[in-house]
Amino acid sequence: MSRKHPAVPPDGLDAPDLRRIAESAAADSGLLSLGGVHDWFEERRKAIRMDVRRIPFAELQRWGFHPVTGNLAHDSGRFFTVEGLRARSEGPDPVSWSQPIMHQPEVGFLGILVKEFDGVLHCLMQAKAEPGNAEGLQLSPTVQATRSNYTGVHEGSAVRYLEYFTDPGKGRPLVDVLQSEHGSWFFRKRNRNLVVEAVGDVPEHEDYRWLTLGQVRRLLGVPDLVNMDTRTVLACLPVAPPDGSLEGVTADGSRGAAVAALTASLSAQAPAAHTLPELLRWFNGLRARSEVAAQLVPLTAVDGWVRDTDEIRHTGGQHFAIVAVSVEAGNREVKGWTQPLLSPRGTGVVAFLAKRIDGVLHVLARAHPEPGYVDLIELAPTVQCVPDDHAHLPPEQRPRFLDQVLAARPEQILYDAVQSEEGGRFYRALSRYLVVETDEDPVVPDDYRWMTVAQLVALLQHSNYCNIQARSLIACLQSVW
């Protein structure tokens, strides 16, 4: 099943840029030591105040339910709305359902500014709190803003450093790609993921610090510290130089062989179970044959959901609820506001099953349909679900590979940390992110394929291939080597 030719054809960044990225990814110290980064973050945690409390819908300010459609919207007509969605999937076992969904047609900015210091590329990272964060402060991109934010609809102060991502004279792009958001919670939502190298001096601010890529990847091993928006941007940035080596990367202990296999998987030159053209043919074939359809409907037309005074919930208590919060923040563009948030009913599991093929780590990706995607199907992790939603089902009806992932022995687990989803729209949305290695040869259904990490990263240079959960896991894998 293996190939002798490269898994990924040459594309994207040139060799010098790839080398600089790799050197930064291997650097555990920079302008600050890793200990200094932790000290700065803890100091900002004490200084940045955000108080969030649940409120009834009646206490929302400038938000309200439409008298006919029941849709929940801001009186400016901007930000986002909570509407209904009706979806159906045809085929041998047709299924249809309806649900609430967030609709935000704006394209936002998720941007990391980079700059060389002492010959090493550094990322300008922000200590930022969001109302839905479980632990408050997180390590966030330089810029994280919706169009409503950066055009001033919120009537707050300007978004800091935005000009480096909008003015071509202030920065050179290394990554610039539209990527999707959660396809079960957002309807066709996309953000512009950017990495831009600054031209000239960059003003300092106490909420921001320059970190190497190596320091950020170390922090990805800490639960609920690096936010989802940082993870999705980092996933789009290739971390291996063209010769496939990673200077400064070492593997020790019993995990050494697995780490070496992962290091090989990061290289575009590594052999793979399938070539990229073969994978594209498989994936686009599934998309072309897909019989999934989705459309927005009024929230009042959604079946199986009820609206109480303080939440919109599923009658069975599953999936998620729409809630309302009041926020007071000391260091944000706006100091206080109210808003709806989506609150999941349980901790998710997001996992790649991994296997070494000819010494190269492959992950099992799934072509996964979700009603909120622009193209309805994107590549997802092997497992992506909330186990509580399936606890009542017999084993044969539970999500494929879920039980295998949850039963993994400690020595099989390459990565395991609870991370949060986006805190600006989701309330305490947590998922357990895992990469589990198997030495078995599991039966692979037709909607799954073994892929190298480099192949996934190559697809991430383009829109609508890898979903947000897969991108998060790709970034988390960077903390392993």
TrEMBL record:
Source species, domain of life: Bacteria
Transmembrane segments: none
Domain dTDP-4-dehydro-6-deoxy-alpha-D-glucopyranose 2,3-dehydratase positions: 37-237, 278-477
Name of one Pfam family that matches: Hexose_dehydrat
Coiled-coil blocks: none
Protein name per its UniProtKB record: NDP-hexose 2,3-dehydratase family protein
Organism name: Streptomyces phaeoluteigriseus
